[in-house]
Amino acid sequence: MKVIEIRISQDLCKGCLLCVWACPYGVLEAGKERNYRGVEVPIVTKLEECRACRLCEYRCPDFAIQVITDKDVEKLREAEQMELRWQRRVELAEEVGVSE
Asked: 24: domain range?
C-alpha cells in the first residue's frame, strides 16, 4: 500500500500536535504557518517515510488529518462509478415516466 497524500485540514486543526507525537516514523512536524485560530498547524515533511499506520488519524481528536493511500483512491473510483450508474438509472426511470 502506497501513501499518496496526507491531508491536514486548516479549518479543523487546533494545533495540539498529537499527530506529530503519535507518528512513529517522523512524517509530521510542527509547522510555522498559523491557521485562522492562530495555532501552528502540523506539516508533512517525510511523506516517503509514511507506512499508512494511520496513528496520526486515530490520535487526532478533531478528525483534522487524513491519510490517503492508493487503495483509498481505488475505492473512491469504484464509489464514483456506482454513483454514476445509479444516476443513469434514475435518469432512465424519469425518461420512461416511472415514479417512486
From this structure: 3-96
Which CATH number characterizes residue 59's domain? 3.30.70.20
In this structure, what are the phi and psi dihedrals at residue 65, rounded to the nearest 5 degrees? Answer: -125, 140
Total number of domains in the chain: 1
Tell me which residues of the chain have a pLDDT lower than 50.
Answer: none
SS3 97: coil
DSSP code of 43?
A: E
**Phi and psi at residue 36, in whole multiples of 5°?**
-65, -20
pLDDT of 75 reads: 87
Report how far residue 92's alpha carbon sits from residue 62's, in angstroms, rounded to the nearest whole number. Answer: 42
